[in-house]
What does this fold into?
Amino acid sequence: MYAMILDEKLDFLWTQVPDPVRKPDEVLIKVHAAAVNRADLMQKTGNYASPAGWPPWCGLEVAGIVLEAPVGAEVKKGDKVCALLGGGGYSEKVVAPAGMVLPIPENLPMTEAASLPEVWSTVYLNLMLEANGIKPGEVFFVQAGASGVGLAAVQFAKTLGAKVIATVGSAEKAKVVRSFGADIAVDYHKEDILDVLKANPPSAALDCVGGKAMGACLETMAFGGRWIMIATLAGGETSLDLETLWRKRIRLIGSTLRSRTPEEKTKILQSLKRDLWPLFSARKLISHIHATFPVRDVAAAHAVLERNENIGKVVLTFEDEK
It folds into this structure.
């Protein structure tokens, strides 16, 4: 098969690699689409390697057709599926533990289905498990609201009854984020996020930005607040008044999905299927696709994220790429 590997200079190279060998509890999938994530950008620069046992090239979520499956698995040969991976999705074929492979929700194209497993697992994990759920009337704050994770978090928090505040980088993104349910869209180029949070103390926050301003923002939280860090795109250093944490009983939570075990990921994915798949089929939830690129144009796809141009997800397609 062909895969988009990283060569010794960490440049992309579309080349032949051995076909994956399926273990008895794994599903073999012919890939039709693979979504691009910021973790892929980190892996491209040599800063976020695939976990042990996964291919060393990028790709955390795919959609395609089952070629082989274990006897008794939820999916069978010929089914349209999406899968969560530890790595290796930028290839014509992948294998994944059966529990990390789900049927595609009804009425969804492959490009949208490929953007579900990683993003929506991240959102479900952090809002439902790490934050212990979002209750109606709570204020939810999400950074990078126009990103794939951001738009998913906005929608999910609204289904849970929250008031949603999201940061964005332009008026265009603010308009889109509001159309997906955000009550307040803060353009950080023009507005002071801290002032908005002081006026609307968040009960829960999903933060992929961090940076120097994070500490002051965290101190605006309501009593019993939960601030969840999933990345530090603006840097890993800040300062905060630790007394605020214990006086307000605030929890600062670090969270990642990629390093979790297949068993943990399986539980999350099954929860997605149970709770969210009907909403996708009914189009009450949407994984918004910003752009698609043939896999050979992966560098251009990555550049969209690098320039922060995307509103929602960027997806690679695998039709006739030899």
About this structure: Residues 63 and 109 are 9 Å apart (CA to CA).
